Amino acid sequence: MERASGAMPPVSPAMRFELRRKVLHVMVAVVAVPAILLLPFGLVVAAALAGIVVITLVWAVDRRYIKPDARLPRLHAPLQKILRATRRPGEDFPWSPVLYTAALVLIGLAHVWWGLSWAIAFAAFAILGLGDAASALVGVAYGRRRLPWNRKKSWEGTGAGFVAGALAGLVMAAIPFAFKGVVVPPPFFAVVLAGAAAGALAETIPRVEDNLVVPLASAATMFGLATALGLALP
After folding, report:
1. Cβ 176 vs Cβ 119: under 8 Å
2. 229 closest CA partner among 121, 117, 125
3. Whether the model pTM is above 0.90
4. At 87, phi and psi to the nearest 5?
5. What are phi and psi of 229, to 5 degrees?
6. Contact 123, 99 (CB under 8 A)
7. To the nearest whole percent, how much of the chain has pLDDT over 90?
8. Mean pLDDT over all residues of the chain?
């Protein structure tokens, strides 16, 4: 039967898969910001590392390296369901959530060890959480023109990732300025745009884990440019 005019097209399995993955990405990025602002940083790092341990234990139980009733008897089933629903085809160990969490921890540690500002850190979180999500969703739904260096990626998805990452990065980066009661300096807008561009390009590199390279590339680019411009950032 012909579909009625104006009816919503069916959502493809690929789109549903990406939606599940990216909703988790956005949720983690959104939770990370208030946690960092309101809780001791050591506690946030400990919680992130504990999350990695739990993910690894669930995977080990799923693979029968650990007896099913030996660890996490009540949490195993729902966590196993989430991991299976968001695991990439052909992926065994759930590297995506592990590296995603590790990237957020590394950026936080860069603040402690190397003086990376929270404004840049939060912008990098947003570029990963929202920019990467927009890139994947738009690429799956509307991607037509393929990138010459990576045929799995499209100009449409990359462009969407840049725009969403830039907008989200500007909003998230403004939070530390608001907490300090200072105005965002106009040159910092260019810094975030450069970070969003770096993240969007890093996401197109073949055979790399974008959950790791996107935030690190964007944070490094913003840090270098902000340092070159002599910007004092909260």
Report:
1. yes
2. 117
3. no
4. -80, 135
5. -85, -10
6. no
7. 27
8. 80
Q: Which alpha helices (DSSP H) does the chain contain, by range?
A: 13-38, 41-62, 76-86, 95-114, 118-126, 132-142, 155-180, 186-202, 210-229
Per-residue confidence at 44, pLDDT binned at 50, 70, 90?
Answer: confident
Give how far Cα 151 sits from Cα of 12, 14, 134, 146, 154, Å.
20, 17, 18, 5, 7
Tokens of 141: 């739904």
Judged against a pLDDT cut of 70, whether residue 70 lies above it is answered with: no
Measured in degrees and rounded to the nearest 5, phi and psi for residue 85 equal: -75, -20
Spatial distance between the Cα atoms of 185 and 174, rounded to a whole number of angstroms: 10
Percent of the chain with pLDDT strictly greater than 70: 73
Residue 4: CB atoms within 10 Å:
6
